[in-house]
Amino acid sequence: MANLLIRNVDKAMVERLKKHAAANKRSLQAELQAILERAATVHTMEESRRIAERFQRELSGRKHSDSTELIREDRDR
């Protein structure tokens, strides 16, 4: 495993991170690891575009209902 060092972190930010860690019942290090893991799993813009394009291809040619009618029916109940 690699080690990371982040320099010059604002004291107020460190305190906020410690509060987040305590609220999540984790050490500061475990909280930072969780934050980094979440950040690393976010899709890049290019990946997001490819996923959206794939959905568009898969859904093209299908008949879709008008959601306005469904919403109106639900409100009228």
Structural notes for this entry:
It is elongated, with a radius of gyration of 22 Å. It has helices spanning 11-23, 28-41, 45-59, 67-76. The longest helix has 15 residues, at 45-59. The protein is 68% helix and 0% strand. It has 77 residues and is mainly alpha-helical. Helix 1 crosses helix 2. It starts with 10 loop residues before the first helix and ends with a helix.
Mean pLDDT: 93
- Our measurement of the CA-to-CA distance between the termini, rounded to an integer number of angstroms, reads 58 Å
Overall spatial form: elongated
Helix content: 55-70%
**Which structural class do you get from the secondary structure elements?**
mainly alpha
In terms of DSSP E residues, the strand content is under 5%
Our count of helices gives: 4
Subunit organisation of the chains: single chain
Radius of gyration of CA atoms, rounded to a whole number: 22 Å
Low-confidence stretches: none
Element order: H for helix, E for strand: HHHH
Number of strands: 0
Largest β sheet strand count, sense and barrel closure: none
Could you outline the blueprint of secondary structure elements for this entry?
Elements: H1 11-23, H2 28-41, H3 45-59, H4 67-76
Keywords:
single chain, 77 residues, mainly alpha, elongated
In short, what is this structure?
By secondary structure, the protein is mainly alpha-helical. Helices cover 68% and strands 0% of the residues.
